[in-house]
Amino acid sequence: MTGRTARTAARAKAWSLGLAAVAVLAAAPAPESAKVVLRQTDVDTGAPLRGARFELWREANGRAGLQTTGANADRLRGSGCVTDAKGTCTATPPVGETYYWRQTAAAVGYEGTADPVTPFDLEEEDLPEGIVLNVPQRRKGAVHRGSIRVLSKDAKTGRPLRGTVFEVWKETNGTKGLQDHGIAADQPTGGPGLVSDAGGISDFTGLSDGSYYLTERDLPEGYVMPERPVTGPLALGAATPGRRLVVTVKNARDYYGKLPDTRAR
After folding, report:
1. How far apart (Å, rounded) are the C-alpha atoms in residues 114 and 99?
2. What is the pLDDT of residue 30?
3. CB neighbours of 196 closer than 8 A, spacing ≥ 6?
4. Contacting residues for 125 by C-beta, under 8 A, at least 6 apart
5. What is the pLDDT of residues 182-220, one digit of tens each?
6. What gap in Å lies between CA 165 and CA 207, rounded to an integer?
């Protein structure tokens, strides 16, 4: 075989392999997409906030958190979104990825947040119904002095229980009981969750008058979640001494794999 013939054969073989690779890549199914709704509302009333600006970013550099600048930044999807009359931005990105909603401007008359980034994972299990992310904000100048102090204790010993994770939600949708997901959810307040300290204390402050639900999200090792992790509704208002509620929550150790309902009400 001459040199030219050998080179031609080599090129033909490489081209053949290239076509095969392209065929394999073309045959690989693209990841499916799921609906993601960002919902921004007034933290005190639940009213939708129109005109807030957000960007959607995809985690792309393997570094924790969102990086928006530099040669190794994460990936911006689209040109951004402005919340509509329902206070929502909607996107349909592929599942199996980590994403970030980043707020770039607040609705007129409302404060920005200390951390404008809301991270979330989109999984295959989200394909049927999608997900809704609640991002409440407070009107500028709104000052509230209401508070809820949660005392987490061991049910048997009464000792402070450190490491219990609590959330407080405000009743805003007019439906009995706590709704903590979906487009008509009640309002989360006080952050994504507070962890009880060495004294078993979690303080939720800056609360307006209204009804609230306290829910346990996680417990220290050796304890299990109760059958009814939600306490409430809890009324907070002018009739509340000092506009301050104190709630004691007791949890038992997981001795037998079951947890009796020992919640103090």
Report:
1. 19
2. 72
3. 150, 152, 160, 161, 162, 163, 164, 165, 166, 202
4. none
5. 888 998 887 678 999 999 999 999 999 999 999 999 999
6. 19
Structure tokens at 250: 């007791």
Higher-pLDDT residue of 29, 222: 222
Query: What is residue 44's DSSP assignment?
Result: T
| Cα(237)–Cα(244) distance, integer angstroms | 9
Structure tokens at 186: 């009640």
Residue 189 in 3-state DSSP? strand
**What residue ranges define each of the domains in the chain, with the CATH number in brackets?**
36-134 (2.60.40.10), 146-251 (2.60.40.10)
Instruction: Tell me how far apart the alpha carbons of residues 54 and 153 are, in angstroms, rounded to a whole number.
Output: 41
DSSP labels for 88-115? EEEE-PBSSEEEEEEEEEPPTTB---S-
72: which residues sit within 8 A by CB, 6+ positions away? Answer: 61, 63
- Residue 153's CB is within 10 A of a number of other CB atoms, namely 19
| 205, containing H or E segment | strand 201-207
pTM: 0.72
Cα distances from 75 to residues 208, 227, 260, in angstroms, run 38, 42, 48
Contact by Cβ (8 Å): 141, 183: no
For the cut 80, the answer to whether the pLDDT of residue 10 exceeds it is: no
